[in-house]
Each structure stands twice: as structure tokens, then as C-alpha cells.
């Protein structure tokens, strides 16, 4: 008999996105990754995989597994400051690895539910709260370039000190704050947040994992595919044309989290569509999958002004990728232009849209918008499509036909090809769908 031990970081996004300033987020993301690496390095030879905030190890004795759990908790606390991990270890039969792996995951989930009721010290009337996160007592001073002498907690100090340790792509430097990233965008002051998540990963792993070696190799393949696809897509998007080339030393995207089966990336808004095209190309390279079927992924894409709080950005993108997952057996994407921090749920809030798209269809939609811009389609007439989509079907259809008659022949043909001969169509489930409002929302963020 052997022993599996699992350490899984708790509430990763709560840790990384508080406080919401980019320097602290970058530092927190670095510290999370560093803690996982230190846990891995403390047990050479025992680690099956270490990525995405999770470390799985295999031991021949219960003492080794228990020591792993104890050291994982200690390392994570020391490295991150206030981050925690949930741990568990189980005995298993080597001939039935899959059952052991499932049991140790269930044990960690149980530990997480118990930990969820625990809270930090919070604020108190007799101490000064951290001027960044606001949830811990201030113990130190940080001198940010814009605001010297900030009183911060020990965790925020650690995050700030770590923000310069993450590496930008060769030839670039990281943006210092979201406003600097938004300045590179076209239109100015807008950002795009891309949230990518692999679909039904548990079922995918169950199909392909039979032994500890399967588990180790496939987990590494998934992590490498996601991380490398993010970096390659960012590099290729940054090399393309656009306003970001006016300050070519600044990296026009920021990987906020990446690893395991998901990634969260903030970009200059006009780079989001090419980023998704390049991500897909890299993710599907055969050498990652070694003959296995390639898993599908879902994307939540949110465009918004840089003043939208990062928490609202992430929540909106999370809702969109969950909506995208309703399209099965495709890479899929659901997008929206968010104009308020009061985020609507796309599955319950009626809106004239063709969301969610399969990714191929979405990329073709972006190419169609590029063609319309290149042929000089009048912006004022394109924007009329938005109002038409929100009207009752019959008045909207009449106005759409009238608009088509007023457009030049080439533009009219492209609009009909992109939206359809009618404003509305009916999908296979009988629901009405239209691309008209989607086209207007994407119009400013796609270049000719």
C-alpha cells in the first residue's frame, strides 16, 4: 500500500485580487506560484504534479504523507503571508490509483468546507487598518511612486515587494497599473479581461488516467499547454499592429493567473480577439497531447473601462465563461461590454445576442467586422443596429431591411453575410438569436 498526499491552495482569487492594484496582484500571483514551487522542491522524487495551486505527492509511508501536509501548510503561510492550503492524505492500492486519487480530492474538498467558516482577524477599532486591503492591521510602510508612506499589513507589504520579481516577455516591461495598460488600448481607457477554463476536466482526466504516471504526465501536459498558449498568444498579439505600438516597451497584456486548467489575462482591449486566435493555435499543438483527444475550453471575455473594479471584471468574466460552457463539444466563448459594476448574469438577463459562440464562429465574426471596417462601412449606420436589436421583432426587422437598402452594395452584402438576411434567427432549441447588438459592441475593439 502507498499514500497519496494533496495540497490545494484556498481562495486563490481572493488572495490574488486583494488589494486590487496591479502591482499587488502581480506580486500575489508570483507568491502563490513560488509557494507551490517550494512545496514541490521540499519533496524531490515524491511529486506527481505541482501546478495551478495544487501539489500531489506519492509516499511509501504515512509519516511521509503527513509530513508533506504539515510542511505544505507551513511553507504556504510563510511564503504568501496570509494564504492557506487545504491538505489531506489517504492510503491507496497501487493497482487502483484512480480510486485513491478520487478519495484524496474528496478529502481535500471536505477540509476546504471546514476551513471556509474560518476568518482572519479583520478590522478593530483600536488598530490602524491596512490602507490597501483594509482587512488586516497595518504593520509596515510602503512607498509607492504615486503614494509614498502607505501603512500596510505584512501580507500587502510582501505582495508589493514581490511585484517586480515576475518577468515580462523579452524586450518588454510590465505595466505598473491598469491605467497604463488601458492607455495602450484602442479605444483608449478600455481593457479586455479573458478568463479561460478547460471544460469538464474531471471527466477528461477520468478517461485518460489509470496510473500515477498517467496522472503526472497529463497534469503536466495540461499545465504546459495553458501556460505556453497564454505566453505565445500574448507575444504574437503584442507583435501585431495597433495603438500599443506607440509605447513598444510596455507589455500590452498582463497574466494575472495561469496554471493548471485555467488562466486570467488582462489585455489592451483591441488585442483580445487576436489573443484568442493565437491561444487556440498554441493550445492545440499535438506535442502537448501525445495522441490523446484535445480537451475543449470555454472563454469569458469582458470589455470595460479600466475604472471597473478588478473584482467586477473577474466576476463578469466568470459568469460569461459559465454561460459559454452551455455550448458543449466546442471551444466556446461568451463576451459582453460591461458598463456598470452591477454585473448581470447572462443566463438570466434577457439581451439580444448570439452568445455563446463556438470559438471558430466568434473568430470568423471578428474577421467579418475587420472587413466591414476595411471597406469603410459607415460607423453611424452600423451603430443603428444596436437600437434595432432591442426593439420588438417586427419593427426591428423593418428597420433592418431599410438600413440594408441604404448601404452600398458591397457593405450590404457583407452585413447580410454577417448578420443574416433577417435581423433575427431561431436556433436549434427554438430560441431567437441576433448578432446585431454583438456586432456593435465588438465594433470599436476590432481593427481593420
Q: Can you characterise this structure?
A:
The protein has 448 residues and is of the alpha+beta class. The chain has three domains: 2-115, 2-Layer Sandwich (Alpha-Beta Plaits), CATH 3.30.70; 178-308, Alpha-Beta Plaits (2-Layer Sandwich); 367-443, no CATH class. Helices cover 46% and strands 17% of the residues. Helix 11 (310-324) links the parallel strand 10 (297-305) and strand 11 (332-337).
What is the N-to-C order of secondary-structure elements (H for helix, E for strand)?
A: EHHEEHEHEEHHEHHEEHHEHEEHHHHEEH
Radius of gyration: 24 Å
Number of helices: 16
Low-confidence spans: none
Q: How many strands, which pairing sense, and closed or not: the largest β-sheet?
A: 6 strands, mixed
- The oligomerization state is single chain
- Give the spatial strand order of the biggest sheet: 8-9-7-10-11-12
| Structure summary, number of beta strands | 14
Query: In angstroms, what separates the terminal alpha carbons?
Result: 62 Å
Helical fraction: 40-55%
Average predicted confidence as pLDDT: 93
Considering the chains and any ligands shown, give keywords for the structure.
46% helix, globular, 14 strands, six-stranded mixed beta sheet, 3 domains, alpha+beta, four-stranded antiparallel beta sheet, Alpha-Beta Plaits, single chain, 448 residues
Task: Summarize the SSE layout with pairings.
Blueprint: E1 2-9, H1 12-16, H2 22-41, E2 47-51, E3 54-59, H3 62-80, E4 85-92, H4 97-115, E5 140-142, E6 150-152, H5 154-162, H6 178-183, E7 190-198, H7 201-208, H8 212-239, E8 253-259, E9 262-268, H9 272-283, H10 286-289, E10 297-305, H11 310-324, E11 332-337, E12 357-358, H12 359-374, H13 379-390, H14 393-406, H15 409-418, E13 425-426, E14 432-433, H16 436-443
Amino acid at each position: 500500500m502507498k499514500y497519496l498526499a494533496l495540497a490545494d491552495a484556498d481562495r486563490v482569487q481572493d488572495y490574488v485580487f486583494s488589494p486590487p492594484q496591479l502591482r499587488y496582484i502581480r506580486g500575489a500571483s508570483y507568491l502563490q506560484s513560488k509557494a507551490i514551487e517550494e512545496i514541490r522542491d521540499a519533496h524531490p522524487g515524491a511529486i506527481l504534479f505541482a501546478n495551478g495551486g495544487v501539489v500531489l505527492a506519492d509516499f511509501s509511508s504515512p509519516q511521509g504523507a503527513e509530513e508533506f501536509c504539515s510542511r505544505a501548510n507551513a511553507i504556504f503561510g510563510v511564503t504568501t503571508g496570509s494564504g492557506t492550503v487545504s491538505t489531506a492524505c489517504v492510503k491507496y492500492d497501487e493497482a487502483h490509483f484512480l480510486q485513491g486519487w478520487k478519495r484524496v480530492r474528496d478529502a481535500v474538498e471536505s477540509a476546504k468546507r471546514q476551513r471556509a467558516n474560518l476568518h482572519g482577524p479583520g478590522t478593530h477599532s483600536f488598530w490602524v487598518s491596512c490602507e490597501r486591503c483594509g482587512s488586516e492591521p497595518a504593520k509596515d510602510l510602503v512607498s509607492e511612486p504615486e503614494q509614498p508612506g502607505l501603512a500596510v499589513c505584512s501580507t500587502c507589504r510582501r505582495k508589493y515587494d514581490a511585484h517586480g520579481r515576475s518577468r515580462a516577455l523579452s524586450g518588454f516591461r510590465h505595466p505598473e497599473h491598469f491605467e497604463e495598460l488601458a492607455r495602450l488600448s484602442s479605444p483608449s481607457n478600455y481593457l479586455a479581461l479573458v478568463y479561460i477554463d478547460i471544460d469538464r476536466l474531471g471527466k477528461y482526466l477520468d478517461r485518460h488516467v489509470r496510473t500515477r504516471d498517467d496522472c503526472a504526465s497529463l497534469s503536466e501536459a495540461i499545465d504546459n499547454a495553458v501556460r505556453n498558449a497564454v505566453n505565445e498568444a500574448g507575444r504574437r498579439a503584442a507583435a501585431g499592429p495597433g495603438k500599443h505600438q506607440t509605447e513598444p516597451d510596455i507589455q500590452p497584456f498582463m497574466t494575472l493567473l495561469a496554471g493548471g486548467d485555467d488562466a486570467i489575462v488582462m489585455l489592451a482591449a483591441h488585442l483580445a480577439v487576436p489573443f484568442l486566435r493565437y491561444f487556440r493555435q498554441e493550445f492545440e499543438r499535438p506535442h502537448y497531447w501525445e495522441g490523446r483527444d484535445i480537451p475543449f475550453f470555454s472563454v469569458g471575455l469582458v470589455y470595460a473601462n479600466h475604472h471597473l473594479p478588478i473584482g467586477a471584471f473577474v466576476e463578469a468574466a466568470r459568469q460569461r465563461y459559465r454561460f459559454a460552457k452551455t455550448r458543449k463539444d466546442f471551444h466556446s466563448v461568451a463576451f459582453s461590454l460591461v458598463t456598470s459594476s452591477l454585473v448581470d448574469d447572462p443566463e438570466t438577463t434577457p439581451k439580444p445576442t448570439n452568445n455563446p459562440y463556438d470559438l471558430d464562429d466568434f473568430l470568423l465574426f471578428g474577421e467579418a467586422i475587420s472587413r466591414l471596417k476595411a471597406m469603410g462601412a459607415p460607423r453611424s449606420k452600423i451603430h443603428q443596429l444596436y437600437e434595432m436589436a432591442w426593439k420588438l421583432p417586427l419593427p426591428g426587422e423593418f428597420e433592418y431591411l431599410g438600413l440594408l437598402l441604404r448601404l452600398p452594395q458591397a457593405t450590404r452584402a457583407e452585413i447580410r453575410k454577417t448578420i443574416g438576411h433577417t435581423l433575427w434567427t431561431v436556433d436549434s432549441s427554438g430560441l431567437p438569436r441576433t448578432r446585431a447588438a454583438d456586432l456593435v459592441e465588438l465594433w470599436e475593439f476590432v481593427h481593420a
